[in-house]
Amino acid sequence: MPPPGSGGPSFAKGSGGQNGFNPRNAEDIFAEFFGSSPFGFRSFGPGRSGRFHSDGGKFGGFNSTDNRKPPPVESKLPCNLEELYTGSTRRMKISRTVVNALGRQVQESEILTIDVKPGWKKGTKITFPDKGNELPNQLPADLVFIIDGKPHDLYKRDGNDLIVNQRVSLAEALGGTTINLVTLDGRNLSLPVTDIINPCHELVVAKEGMPIAKEPGNRGDLKIKFEVMFPKKLTL
């Protein structure tokens, strides 16, 4: 045994390992001085290293699919008032860009069916998930149709009510008249008016308005607004 102080190796027990000796990975020592390993590994602490790491959707240096969804593709769906009153079935042919199995963008056509429900309003949205355009390494966008109401020659919609502007002569306003209308579903509606019609007079016919989409079987009202046509000259 070397005498004390002769400079020979001395081992003391400690928490670092057997007899206090803590072997270290050469890559970790290199990384401690130079900030990285010369072998293309990333250090994960004493005795551990790894070649691959995850960072912002990349793994092992390879890009993965971006799971973000692009904004939806929106398109107006014009509907006349009769369709929104009775309901209808619309078939829409669409063309969109998709990514095939080879990773190439190609055009694809498809026919979509839309069941327009009675009582739907302007602004109602119908969403077809993943039926929009598709870009490489991204999720396909949704396709959204937005109901747009066309104007009608006779009826005007006001929420769930229907409005009709009706002109009457002064004689009709004083002596009574009958209003004949054809409803949006093709029925003949005959409305006798026996009261004196004053300017801005309004006749309300209950349950003859638009269907209420969220209340099946229920309807709004039909409101007839009168305009009295006064003669420009009086004849004796």
TrEMBL record:
Keyword Chaperone found: yes
Stretch list, region Disordered: 1-24, 55-77
Keyword flag Glycoprotein: no
Gene Ontology CC annotations of this record: cytosol
Cross-referenced Pfam families: DnaJ_C
Domain of life assignment: Eukaryota
SUPFAM superfamilies per the UniProt record, alphabetical: HSP40/DnaJ peptide-binding domain
Single GO molecular function: protein-folding chaperone binding
Alphabetical keyword list: Chaperone, Elongation factor, Protein biosynthesis
Classification via InterPro entries: DnaJ_C, DnaJ_subfamily_B, HSP40/DnaJ_pept-bd
Biological process terms in GO annotation: protein folding
Domain (Chaperone DnaJ C-terminal): residue spans on this chain: 73-231
PANTHER family in UniProt: DNAJ HEAT SHOCK FAMILY PROTEIN (PTHR24078:SF538), DNAJ HOMOLOG SUBFAMILY C MEMBER (PTHR24078)
Protein name listed in UniProt: SPOC domain / Transcription elongation factor S-II protein, putative isoform 1
Annotated organism of origin: Hibiscus syriacus
